[in-house]
Amino acid sequence: MEALSFKTQSFEGPLDLLLYLISKKKLSICDVSLAEISGQFFEYIKQMQEDDIELSSEFLVTASQLLYIKSKELLPKQEEDTKEESQEDLTKRLLEYKKYKEISQIIKEYQSNGDKYLDRPPEKIDIPFEALNLQIPISKLISAFYDVVHKSERKKMPKEESFKGIIGREKVSIRKMSKRVLEVLNGRKRVKFIDVFKDMDKPHMVATFLAVLELVKLQRILIFESNGQIFLSKCEKFQKIEEIKFEFE
Amino acid sequence: MDIKTIESAVEAILFASGEAVPLSFISNALEVDRQTLKKIINNMAQRYKEEKRGINILELEDSYQMVSSPLYYDYISRVLIPKRRQQLSSAALETLSIIAYNQPITKAKIEYIRGVDCTGSINKLLERNLIEEAGRLNTAGKPILYKTTLEFLKAFGLRSLNDLPPIDNPFLAADEEAT
């Protein structure tokens, strides 16, 4: 099979030769347009009647090698420094390792001394439990108990509050709060304005307040004052909350 | 308690215990202060050796163990067939040396020095009771720390870690600024 020949401004010949020249530093990769070369390759492929796997793969290998060289050339040279450092590191490590390798041979010799001391497993004595004089001070027992308590506490699921600030606030929808307001008002003649906000955190309060305003605007509820207190009450024509079209949506 | 009684009690304790017994245990049991007891036991050990008795008392760090004297190993082996213990591989020996000089040490540090995975050697050493876990390092991942055991001292005929052959600047000292 004939090798394909490529021609660019600074080079003419088969791809193998190009790779050879570059690896021998006879030619700078930066002077060669790889785009041009691959363009020419595709031209060849187009001209060919049938696919030549061997030719294509050969091109692919060489071209990717060239691409690798070029991309490496184009990258900032910073990498070199760290490489040198790690080289130093490696030398240090190897020296360190050599030291232990040598010492392990010395230690190995020691083993023959120790090997000849024979011992036996401890005697098993059956002593009734009460007779065992367990010398454990009560304070140790107490601290062990505290450890257990502490550990089980640590294993407990963290409280929801501890996630505050980590996860975002719960989103409170005005629609949901509107429904709630209507539920509170349902079947009751009037409800104190303050009572609608009972046991609520800030986001719920804000949403509920907006819900009240919306409901008033949509004429679902009435808001009025009596004896210096604000009350809410439901309008006669009641509509299901799902059917209400909110303007802000 | 007279010295004779103390010596006999120590002998009895060490015989029955088989494995190494910390000095503090014996001291508590006999109600003899440690320094005095240490002198007494070392004296006994010395005598055992001088008289070339079949039994020796080994000092291992702050513990004592009763073992058979190596002088009669050959005779013992004629009666008891010694367990053919496999020799430690050189990889295991290297790992053991690194642990011995740098304990407590993490597996990662050992592997850093040796440049290869040490799981196998560490497991082998744990199995042979030459090393043991020594808590965990308080860094990310809380890696396990390893140290050598009294069994290690005995197996290598050392009285304490100070008996290890000297080595210039163990790794950790030099490594402190590197990590």
Can you walk through the features of this model?
- Among the domains of chain A are: about 5-75; about 175-245, Orthogonal Bundle (Arc Repressor Mutant, subunit A), CATH 1.10.10.580.
- Chain A contains eight helices and five strands, in the order ββααααααβααββ.
- Chain A has helices at about 15-25, 35-45, 55-75, 80-115, 140-155, 175-185, 195, 200-215; strands spanning about 5, 10-15, 190, 220-225, 230-235.
- In chain A, strands 3-5-4 form a three-stranded antiparallel beta sheet.
- In chain A, helix 2 (about 35-45) runs antiparallel to helix 3 and helix 6 (about 175-185) packs across helix 8 (about 200-215).
- Chain B is globular and about 55 Å long.
- Chain B folds into two domains: about 5-80, Winged helix-like DNA-binding domain superfamily/Winged helix DNA-binding domain (Arc Repressor Mutant, subunit A); about 90-175, Orthogonal Bundle (Arc Repressor Mutant, subunit A), CATH 1.10.10.
- The interface between A and B is large, with 29 and 42 residues.
What's the gist of this structure?
The complex is a heterodimer of chains A (249) and B (179). Chain A has 249 residues and is mostly helical.
Q: Provide the residue-averaged pLDDT of chain B.
A: 86
Q: Which overall shape of chain B is indicated by the principal axes computed on the Cα atoms?
A: globular
Can you tell me the CATH superfamily of the largest domain in chain B? Winged helix-like DNA-binding domain superfamily/Winged helix DNA-binding domain
The end-to-end span of chain B amounts to 55 Å
Radius of gyration of chain B: 19 Å
Largest sheet of chain B: 3 strands, antiparallel
Helix content of chain B: 40-55%
Count of helical regions of chain A: 8
* Secondary structure tally: strands of chain A: 5
The CATH topology name of the largest domain in chain B reads Arc Repressor Mutant, subunit A
> Would you count the extended β strands of chain B for me?
6
How are strands sequenced across the largest beta sheet of chain A?
A: 3-5-4
Number of helices of chain B: 9
Report the principal-axis shape of chain A. flat
User: What is the CA-CA span between the terminal residues of chain A?
Assistant: 71 Å
Can you tell me the residue ranges of chain A where pLDDT is under 50 for at least 5 consecutive residues? none
Low-pLDDT parts of chain B are 172-179
Please, what is the oligomeric state? heterodimer
Largest sheet descriptor of chain A: 3 strands, antiparallel
Most extensive interface between two protein chains, with residue counts: A-B, 29 and 42 residues
* Biggest sheet: strand arrangement of chain B: 1-3-2
